[in-house]
Amino acid sequence: MTALAQRPTDAQPPGTLPDGIDAHRLSERRVVPLRHPLRWVITGLVLVLLLNFAQTLFTNPSWEWEKVGVWFFSPPILKGLQLTIIATAISTVVSFFGGIVVALARLSGNPVLTTLSSFYIWLFRSVPLLLVLVFLFNLGNLYPEIGVGIPFGPQFTVNTVATLTPLALGVIGLSLSEIAYSAEVVRSGLLAVDQGQHEAADALGIPKHRQFTRIVLPQALRSIVPAYVNQIIGLIKASSLLYYVSLLDLFGIAQNLGSTYPTDVIPLLVVATIWYLILTSVIAIVQYYIERFYARGSVRVLPPTPLQRLRKALGWNRAKVSAA
Amino acid sequence: MSQAIAVHNATKSYGDKTVLRGVDFSVEAGTVTVILGPSGSGKSTLLRAINHLEKLDEGFVSLNGELIGVRVKGTRLKELRPKDILRQRAKIGFVFQNFNLFPHLTILENVTEAPISHGVKAAEARENARALLARVGLSEKEADYPRQLSGGQQQRVAIARALALDPDVILFDEPTSALDPELVGEVLAVIRTLAGSGKTLIVVTHEIGFAREVADRVVFMDEGAIIEEGTPDQVLTRPAHPRTQDFLSKVLA
Ligand SMILES: Nc1ncnc2c1ncn2[C@@H]1O[C@H](COP(=O)(O)OP(=O)(O)OP(=O)(O)O)[C@@H](O)[C@H]1O
Ligand SMILES: [Mg+2]
Question: CDD domains in the record, alphabetically (chain A) (predicted)?
Fold first, then answer.
């Protein structure tokens, strides 16, 4: 008690008004914001390191930028890029719809469907993609012919190796494994839709398939899209595994050209890196607009698009254009 | 007058908890019935059983003589296929405590969604929806999304949505309980205009003043059974049962 009384200023909380201050004048002066000196020091350090690295890009001759320019649009690289895009695009679409089917099966409440879909997800999430791909490329050895038919009854079969091209096998492999992940993404999105939405749709007697496509899925997509785009980006990179089953995707081509022209290994890797960066950036832009579309109704006012922001910064709004 | 809704021996348990204990009750066409009762007494369960959002263990509900959600097979009741139940629900509107509007659809689309899914042409559904939105005083909001509206406005949209299928009966489960006090009046005003329009209304609410003014009949429930029913004057002013008296003294306090 006495110790506290002896040091009144120290014992007081920081918000206390000191005695004898003119509260009115105090209240009229601008509040000084809190400074963050450590942040500035760290920012400075990072900038120095970044500039150091940027400098090496120009001073270190091993980067060989002129060769990067030559390889960037060369026909083999573009062909590899095409394969990467095709394999990823088909697998993206197939695994999105496949994911919906598997997720619905898992949520169906039918014990056979639930067990089957859970088993599928478990299997393909457990086995490495590379193993799935190599397995598929040896399918011709395991099942020289594939087909469907009534057990012990008539069969419809085709020759495995002749029917399934390497690209088809590659896409099947990528999709099989991707479906397992996208099914979980879709399922979590569907579960996130409020139960009241199902009840309202039921109470209005909206048919089940329309409830799904009009009411439930559009709301689920709001949380599915960001997670699924993550999956697609993973898929683009996973498609480089196709190289191991002798399909020449972007990475495979860069690798192959690198062994043919050993002096160009670094520029070729740079070329592949830049193309992967471009692919991911394009997807991120598309994602932005898709997310904006599915956000309608969930926020009171949609944020402006980057284009709208740019226009505003330049001072071209519609009112001005129409007034002119 | 004819019976619109008849509930026979509605019985329902969750596990060993009995929620409805053989409720019998009927509602005449074109009248307003208010259901009162303490929390957990089974009011929502009864209301939801009427449009088969909740399945009964025993008993059945009929609308204008047609069984809802079940059919007679031999000497027993058998549940209908979901498709047929969904078709029957078009004749019974339901208004939820939490509105449950579709947040990703505009106000107009919220109202047209059910008619379009039942085969009404889009242009006709829109025209009808605009008339309904005008009736609940929200014409200028048709292009907005639900979250841009106040709670009272959202509930009025929900009422327009329920009216869009031109149902015979509309069920309201505490339509004003999620609203700020100053918004309760606008929603009750809309419900009041529906009373006497030929629609049969069943309203679960704690708004005693509204019940006294608008209801033709008041039903008091406790512990899964109806303990008292009659005109508003009988049940609200001169309740016979001690539990009704107790409830009213608490609500009116
Ligand atoms: N899905 C469920 N599982 C288990 N018990 C339930 C379920 N739904 C309702 N109940 C129980 O049934 C009883 C009646 O519920 P109900 O919602 O019909 O009451 P209520 O009269 O509408 O109450 P309130 O005024 O609070 O809305 C409650 O005790 C509740 O806990
Ligand atoms: Mg209730």
Answer: TM_PBP2
pLDDT in tens, A219-251: 999 999 999 999 999 999 899 999 988 889 999
Residue B179 has pLDDT above 60, yes or no: yes
pLDDT in tens, A241-294: 999 888 899 999 999 999 999 988 999 999 999 999 999 999 999 999 998 888
- Reported pTM: 0.83
**Contacting residues of B for A200, CB less than 8 Å apart:** 94, 96, 100-102
Core vs surface per residue B186-208: b (16+ CB within 10 A) or e: bbbebbeebbeeebbbbbbbbbb
Q: What number does the ligand 1 atom closest to the CA of B42 have?
A: 18
Tokens standing for residue A133: 């791909």
B215 φ/ψ angles, rounded to the nearest 5 degrees: -70, 145
**How many structural domains comprise chain A?**
1
Contact A159, A145 (CB under 8 A): yes
What pLDDT, in 10s, does the model give residues A204-220?
999 999 999 999 999 99
Buried-state track B58-78, b at ≥16 Cβ within 10 A, e below 16: ebbbbbeeebbbbeeeeeebe
Q: Which one of B48, B85, B104 makes the best mutation probe of the A interface by having the most chain A beta carbons within 10 Å?
A: B104
Structure tokens at A162: 């002749």
Domain membership flag for residue A218: yes
Please write the tens of the pLDDT for every residue from A162-197.
Answer: 777 888 989 999 999 999 999 999 999 999 999 999
Using pLDDT thresholds of 50, 70 and 90, give the confidence band for residue A323.
Answer: very low
Is residue A3 in some structural domain?
no
Q: Give me the CATH number covering residue A113.
A: 1.10.3720.10
Residue A192 lies in a domain: yes
**What residues of chain A lie within 8 A of the CB of B113, using their CB?**
204, 206, 214-215
In terms of residue numbers, what domain contains A209? Answer: 69-147+157-293
Up-side HSE of residue B217: CA atoms within 13 Å toward CB? 17
Do A266 and A60 contact (CB within 8 A), yes or no?
no
ipTM: 0.94
Starting at the edge strand that comes first in sequence, how are the strands of the sheet with B17-28 ordered? B17-28, B3-14, B58-63, B66-67
User: Would you tell me which residues 194-213 of chain A have a C-beta closer than 8 angstroms to some C-beta of chain B?
Assistant: 194, 196-197, 199-208, 210
Q: Name the residue at shortest CA distance from atom 25 of ligand 1.
A: B39
The CA distance from A93 to the nearest CA of chain B, in Å, is: 24
Identify whether A318 is part of a domain.
no
Which residues are placed with Cβ below 5 angstroms of ligand 2, an ion?
Answer: B 44
- Residue pair B215/B35 in contact (Cβ under 8 Å)? The answer is no
Residue A236, both tokens: 């683009």
Residue B187 contacts by C-beta under 8 Å, 6 or more apart in sequence? B152, B155, B156, B159, B175, B176, B179
How far is A280 from A285, CA to CA, in rounded Å?
9
User: And the tokens for B193?
Assistant: 């205009």
Note the helical H segments in A143-203. 160-163, 166-191, 195-203
Residues of A in contact with B44 (CB under 8 A): none
